[in-house]
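Postdoc handover notes: sequence design on the structure in folder B. Input tokens:
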């Protein structure tokens, strides 16, 4: 299949594929997508547009991300791919011993204990300084305006917002969580679809970040406010943790899948899981998408990859197995030998012997960005720094409290991370950015998007609209009801524990932008399972 084939495959779906040439932004909220495009029209490039869109998403989709979250980016510029890891570490003041002395045997989801250093504001500043054309204050201006003036909630957003508010109302009783309710449930309830919500404190915070290139967040008054809030309620995060933080430029990792190079951020992210699964399947032939053999092999490959990922992936400095060993051809072949006719119980192998918002941007100059940021588990820790709009993430929940585990909690260590941006190239040319947000669905979505494009010739919108599956644990698999019935029955006969669900959030939310290498035409798809939108010109 050529890139042009992928761009022009005829398909009738819920949405039509979108074409443009000078600029394109694809994300889960129309207002954020339009903000990114407006920045391009003002003279910004795809990197500026990505920053503007990301900042807007902290306002117009706070159910999935916030100023106090993490971010990762893959940036294609001047014919080279760059990786940015803006995930934050555990505070210097925390340890397994301290938690166990408090009687904590499993890391909690909410409160101060799982809060790690936020990386998103540093990501915006770093991207702006290295590759942007406009000052950060200008790229953050649309987000400031939405927070200050307010915006009307979209339907899917309001559904998840109301669901979170109801859940938090039942389980978050400590007064440390009051600021969350003051900010996101004013008047005692979540705003409804079409109602205006605004956050003046959020606006002031974004403005300060823009005017200081994020220094206010990490070394100024905002850092002080975070420190004060943490100390008041026995948290471990301190201003010193924020002052020391810097995002890291990393070399992206890849596997070659049928002539295409599939790129991910290296660990501590779980992009390695998607690459291991593709590496396991790359010597198989898949000619029909809606086929029981296709589903079975995909599910089995991702199960094996997750078994390895859960055992080995963490901050790269602490991994007991090297990334290159996990992605070696020999190890891929060894794992493929385990896939038979029946569903298996996955276990990690030994290579030494052989959720989130996502956005894609592209401009007419050839720049393209795959960007993802998240607070984790929706609103994250349930903590909002009073009067700032800073909703803090709970990424520390992914740490293990087993000292012998690769991903064991340690001060200054980054945890296993779920959010992953993806990028596709062929023959040293960019095909484009792609991503599927949604916790542990993300590498599974990446596998399905790549195969939908490369193996089955689907255009970006068709690739996103196609029925999805998600492996949960053991032999349990969720399928969308649109999966053909004969495939459901065939998978059950193979030993898969299959469940059909209508809950669209179970299958992630994706965005894709491909560029035609000859004409430069941009071809984009956005997620029909949410309030997805593409802004283009």
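Designed sequence:
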């Amino acid at each position: 299949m050529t890139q042009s084939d992928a761009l022009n495959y005829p398909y009738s779906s819920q949405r039509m594929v979108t074409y443009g040439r000078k600029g394109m932004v694809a994300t889960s909220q129309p207002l954020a997508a339009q903000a990114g495009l407006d920045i391009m029209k003002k003279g910004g490039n795809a990197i500026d547009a990505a920053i503007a869109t990301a900042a807007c998403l902290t306002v117009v989709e706070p159910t999935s991300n916030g100023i106090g979250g993490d971010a990762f980016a893959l940036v294609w510029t001047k014919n080279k791919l760059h990786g940015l890891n803006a995930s934050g570490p555990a505070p210097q003041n925390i340890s397994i011993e301290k938690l166990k002395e408090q009687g904590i045997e499993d890391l909690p989801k909410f409160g101060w204990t799982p809060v790690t250093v936020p990386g998103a504001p540093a990501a915006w500043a770093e991207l702006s300084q290295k590759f942007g054309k406009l000052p950060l204050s200008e790229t953050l201006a649309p987000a400031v305006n939405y927070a200050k003036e307010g915006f009307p909630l979209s339907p899917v957003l309001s559904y998840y917002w109301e669901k979170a508010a109801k859940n938090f109302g039942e389980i978050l009783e400590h007064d440390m969580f009051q600021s969350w309710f003051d900010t996101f449930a004013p008047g005692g309830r979540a705003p409804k679809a079409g109602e205006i919500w605004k956050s003046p404190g959020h606006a002031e915070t974004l403005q300060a970040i823009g005017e200081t290139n994020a220094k206010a967040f990490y070394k100024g008054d905002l850092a002080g406010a975070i420190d004060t809030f943490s100390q008041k309620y026995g948290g471990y995060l301190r201003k010193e943790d924020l002052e020391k933080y810097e995002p890291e430029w990393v070399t992206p990792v890849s596997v070659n899948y049928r002539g295409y190079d599939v790129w991910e951020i290296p660990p501590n992210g779980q992009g390695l899981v998607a690459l291991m699964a593709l590496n396991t399947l790359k010597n198989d032939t898949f000619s029909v998408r809606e086929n029981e053999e296709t589903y079975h092999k995909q599910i089995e490959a991702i199960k094996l990859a997750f078994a390895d990922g859960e055992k080995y992936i963490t901050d790269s400095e602490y991994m007991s197995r090297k990334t290159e060993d996990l992605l070696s051809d020999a190890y891929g072949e060894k794992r493929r030998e385990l896939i038979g006719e029946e569903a298996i119980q996955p276990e990690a192998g030994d290579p030494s012997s052989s959720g989130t918002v996502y956005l894609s941007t592209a401009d007419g100059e050839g720049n393209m960005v795959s960007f993802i940021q998240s607070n984790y588990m929706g609103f994250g820790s349930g903590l909002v720094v009073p009067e700032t709009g800073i909703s803090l993430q709970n990424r520390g929940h992914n740490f293990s409290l087993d000292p012998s585990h690769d991903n064991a909690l340690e001060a200054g260590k980054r945890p296993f991370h779920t959010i992953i941006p993806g990028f596709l190239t062929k023959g040293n040319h960019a095909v484009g950015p792609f991503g599927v947000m949604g916790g542990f669905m993300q590498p599974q979505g990446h596998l399905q998007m790549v195969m939908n494009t490369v193996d089955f010739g689907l255009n970006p919108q068709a690739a996103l609209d196609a029925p999805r599956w998600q492996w949960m644990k053991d032999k349990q698999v969720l399928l969308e009801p649109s999966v053909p019935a004969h495939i459901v029955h065939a998978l059950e006969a193979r030993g898969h524990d299959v469940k059909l669900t209508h809950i669209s959030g179970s299958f992630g939310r994706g965005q894709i932008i491909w560029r035609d290498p000859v004409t430069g035409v941009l071809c984009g798809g956005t997620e029909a399972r949410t309030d997805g939108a593409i802004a283009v010109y």
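Context for whoever picks this up: Confidence is low (pLDDT under 50) at residues 1-13. Don't rerun without checking with the PI first.
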